[in-house]
Amino acid sequence: MNTTQSAYEYCKAIIDKHSKTFSKAFALLPKKQKQAVWAIYAFCRQVDDIVDEGQNPSKELKEFEQEFHYFLAGHLPSDDPMWLALQDVFQRFNMDTVPFQEMIDGQRLDIDSHIVQTEDELMSYCYLVASTVGLMLLPVIAPGKEEKLREGAIHLGKGMQLTNILRDIGEDMERNRVYIPEEVMVKYDYGYDELYNQTINSSFIQLWEDLAHKAQKHYELALETIHEYPLYSRTPVKGAAYLYKAILPAIRENNYQVFSERNYVSDRQKKEILANMNMIKA
After folding, report:
1. What domain count does the chain have?
2. Coil, strand or helix: which one is 191?
3. Is 75 helix (H, G, I), strand (E, B) or coil?
4. Which of 9, 63, 64, 180 is most deeply buried (CB count within 10 A of its CB)?
């Protein structure tokens, strides 16, 4: 028989395994908020895993969506501890259900293949799969400030997702996904043949930097609202932003090698960033 506490521990193991950056940043929250972050992350991770690793992702995602609607009707859909933890979150906080559904809708776009044509399409995708996470978290980490912080949370999600995309170009191609918009490739005279041949030339660097600049702008806009967060969540949110932002210079230092290597920020660098970020101008 699962208890709420053991359900939260189950969710904590998921975030510890899959996102050391988020785990490290949000470890600074008070206990109830921190546990809620674990549960929300576990929900998002399950949706992501269905699409990336499921045997029949279309069918499995539809079943998960039905479970979510059953959950919203006041039931526990299964004995998965994630639902028990999430139930406690919905009882403790004034949760908005819309971004949870939007996350499912966004992940559905990745079933089969996903080739992005325009920047508008890319930013819509970034909202659905990443900005929604920030909107899920706002009632937990900034209760009563949801509307005031909404745009900043959306910007932070977009900055983070663009960073993921710029880091994971090679991995995404293996899943028949190309998130670099075709119109950006055309702008810098870089073709799909060059992309699939993993060509890193001046055109590739220019288009990469174009999207990196946009990511940086989203981080800047997000951090403009950081003072609106309660004191207990200000440092965790700022920490998450700074830890993610640091991936971009790590890729530059690795000569833009995003096809065959996964770029990351070391634990030592993460500690330095968290220690120094309050002295750094946002």
Report:
1. 1
2. coil
3. coil
4. 180
pLDDT at res. 280:
47
CB 106 within 8 A of CB 171: no
Q: How many CB atoms lie within 10 A of CB 181?
A: 21
Question: pLDDT (tens digit, 9 = 90+) per residue, 97-131?
Answer: 999 999 999 999 999 888 999 999 999 999 999 99
Given a contact cutoff of 8 angstroms between Cβ atoms, the answer to whether 22 and 15 are in contact is yes
| H helical segments located in the chain | 4-18, 20-26, 31-53, 57-72, 81-92, 98-108, 119-126, 132-141, 146-167, 169-174, 182-187, 192-196, 202-223, 231-245, 247-253, 267-276
CATH number for the domain spanning 8: value is 1.10.600.10
Q: What is the pLDDT of residues 55-75, one digit of tens each?
A: 999 999 999 999 999 999 999
Range of weakest confidence among 2-11, 95-104, 181-190 = 2-11
* Separation between Cα atoms, residue 71 and residue 86, nearest integer Å: 9
Task: For 76-143, give the DSSP string.
Answer: --SS-HHHHHHHHHHHHS---SHHHHHHHHHHHTTSS-EE--SHHHHHHHHIIIIIHHHHHHHHHHST
What are the φ/ψ torsions at residue 178 (nearest 5 degrees)?
-130, 110
Residue 241, domain extent: 4-279
Q: What is the C-alpha to C-alpha distance for residues 281 and 9, in angstroms, rounded to an integer?
A: 35
Confidence (pLDDT) at 268? 81
